[in-house]
Amino acid sequence: QVQLVESGGGLVQAGGSLRLSCAASGSFFRINDMGWYRQAPEKQRELVATITISGDTNYLDSVKGRFTISRDNAKNTVSLQMNGLKPEDTAIYYCNADYFLRSYSGPYSWWGQGTQVTVSS
Question: Which contacts qualify for 100-107: CB closer than 8 Å, 24 or more apart?
Protein backbone atom coordinates (compact mmCIF):
# COMPACT_ATOMS: atom_id res chain seq x y z
CA GLN A 1 0.00 0.00 0.00
CA VAL A 2 1.16 3.49 -0.80
CA GLN A 3 0.08 6.81 0.63
CA LEU A 4 0.45 10.07 -1.23
CA VAL A 5 0.65 13.28 0.74
CA GLU A 6 0.34 16.51 -1.17
CA SER A 7 1.27 20.02 -0.21
CA GLY A 8 1.71 23.43 -1.76
CA GLY A 9 -1.75 24.33 -2.92
CA GLY A 10 -3.27 27.67 -2.18
CA LEU A 11 -4.62 30.92 -3.48
CA VAL A 12 -2.54 33.08 -5.79
CA GLN A 13 -2.98 36.00 -8.10
CA ALA A 14 -2.90 35.50 -11.84
CA GLY A 15 0.68 35.40 -12.98
CA GLY A 16 1.86 34.01 -9.69
CA SER A 17 3.55 30.74 -8.91
CA LEU A 18 2.98 27.71 -6.77
CA ARG A 19 4.97 24.57 -6.21
CA LEU A 20 3.07 21.40 -5.48
CA SER A 21 4.79 18.50 -3.83
CA CYS A 22 3.75 14.92 -3.32
CA ALA A 23 5.50 12.41 -1.13
CA ALA A 24 4.85 8.70 -1.39
CA SER A 25 5.20 6.48 1.61
CA GLY A 26 4.16 3.05 2.77
CA SER A 27 4.93 -0.46 1.67
CA PHE A 28 5.63 -0.86 -2.00
CA PHE A 29 8.23 -2.35 -4.24
CA ARG A 30 8.63 0.43 -6.74
CA ILE A 31 6.88 3.47 -8.13
CA ASN A 32 7.08 3.76 -11.87
CA ASP A 33 5.13 6.67 -13.29
CA MET A 34 4.05 9.66 -11.27
CA GLY A 35 1.97 12.59 -12.27
CA TRP A 36 -0.42 15.36 -11.55
CA TYR A 37 -4.03 15.58 -12.62
CA ARG A 38 -6.56 18.27 -11.99
CA GLN A 39 -10.29 18.60 -11.84
CA ALA A 40 -12.24 21.82 -11.95
CA PRO A 41 -15.83 22.00 -10.74
CA GLU A 42 -18.20 20.31 -13.15
CA LYS A 43 -15.28 19.27 -15.31
CA GLN A 44 -13.65 15.95 -15.94
CA ARG A 45 -10.32 15.14 -14.44
CA GLU A 46 -7.51 15.84 -16.86
CA LEU A 47 -3.87 14.98 -17.01
CA VAL A 48 -1.58 17.89 -16.26
CA ALA A 49 1.84 16.32 -16.32
CA THR A 50 3.45 12.93 -15.92
CA ILE A 51 6.97 11.77 -15.44
CA THR A 52 8.38 8.30 -15.84
CA ILE A 53 10.96 6.67 -13.65
CA SER A 54 13.55 7.52 -16.28
CA GLY A 55 12.55 11.18 -16.32
CA ASP A 56 10.53 11.40 -19.51
CA THR A 57 7.78 13.97 -19.19
CA ASN A 58 4.44 14.66 -20.76
CA TYR A 59 2.39 17.82 -20.37
CA LEU A 60 -1.05 19.09 -21.06
CA ASP A 61 -0.70 21.47 -24.00
CA SER A 62 -2.10 24.43 -22.10
CA VAL A 63 0.55 24.20 -19.38
CA LYS A 64 3.60 23.63 -21.53
CA GLY A 65 6.22 26.24 -20.86
CA ARG A 66 4.58 27.23 -17.60
CA PHE A 67 4.59 24.05 -15.53
CA THR A 68 7.50 21.78 -14.82
CA ILE A 69 7.22 18.33 -13.30
CA SER A 70 10.14 16.74 -11.54
CA ARG A 71 10.78 13.80 -9.28
CA ASP A 72 13.27 12.42 -6.85
CA ASN A 73 13.32 8.66 -7.21
CA ALA A 74 15.30 8.14 -4.04
CA LYS A 75 12.78 10.09 -2.00
CA ASN A 76 9.73 8.95 -3.97
CA THR A 77 8.53 12.47 -4.41
CA VAL A 78 7.13 14.36 -7.34
CA SER A 79 6.76 18.10 -7.66
CA LEU A 80 4.98 20.44 -9.99
CA GLN A 81 6.34 23.93 -10.37
CA MET A 82 3.59 26.14 -11.70
CA ASN A 83 4.52 29.53 -13.06
CA GLY A 84 2.45 32.11 -14.83
CA LEU A 85 -0.72 30.78 -13.30
CA LYS A 86 -4.00 31.64 -14.95
CA PRO A 87 -7.54 31.59 -13.61
CA GLU A 88 -8.27 28.61 -15.81
CA ASP A 89 -5.69 26.66 -13.84
CA THR A 90 -8.02 26.75 -10.86
CA ALA A 91 -8.81 23.19 -9.89
CA ILE A 92 -8.17 20.48 -7.39
CA TYR A 93 -4.83 18.95 -8.20
CA TYR A 94 -4.28 15.28 -7.55
CA CYS A 95 -1.03 13.44 -7.26
CA ASN A 96 -0.96 10.03 -8.90
CA ALA A 97 1.47 7.17 -8.69
CA ASP A 98 1.63 3.88 -10.50
CA TYR A 99 3.36 1.40 -8.29
CA PHE A 100 4.20 -2.23 -7.73
CA LEU A 101 3.32 -3.67 -4.36
CA ARG A 102 5.71 -6.51 -5.06
CA SER A 103 7.84 -7.27 -8.07
CA TYR A 104 5.07 -9.55 -9.28
CA SER A 105 2.11 -7.53 -8.04
CA GLY A 106 1.09 -4.50 -10.01
CA PRO A 107 1.05 -1.98 -11.37
CA TYR A 108 -1.54 -0.31 -9.22
CA SER A 109 -2.66 3.27 -9.42
CA TRP A 110 -3.02 5.38 -6.31
CA TRP A 111 -4.20 8.91 -5.78
CA GLY A 112 -3.58 11.63 -3.30
CA GLN A 113 -6.42 13.39 -1.58
CA GLY A 114 -6.14 16.45 -3.77
CA THR A 115 -5.01 19.97 -3.05
CA GLN A 116 -6.87 23.09 -4.08
CA VAL A 117 -5.25 25.58 -6.38
CA THR A 118 -7.14 28.81 -6.86
CA VAL A 119 -5.94 31.54 -9.18
CA SER A 120 -7.66 34.88 -8.90
CA SER A 121 -7.87 37.33 -11.76
Answer: 100/28, 100/29, 100/30, 100/31, 100/32, 101/1, 101/27, 101/28, 101/29, 102/29, 103/29, 103/30, 105/29, 106/29, 107/32
pLDDT of residue 49: 98
- pLDDT block averages, 10 residues each, the chain of length 121: 93 98 93 96 96 96 98 93 98 96 92 97 92
Please report, for residues 17, 21, 67, 90, 106, the alpha-carbon distance to residue 83 in angstroms, rounded to integers and kept in the order given.
4, 14, 6, 13, 34
pLDDT of 87: 97
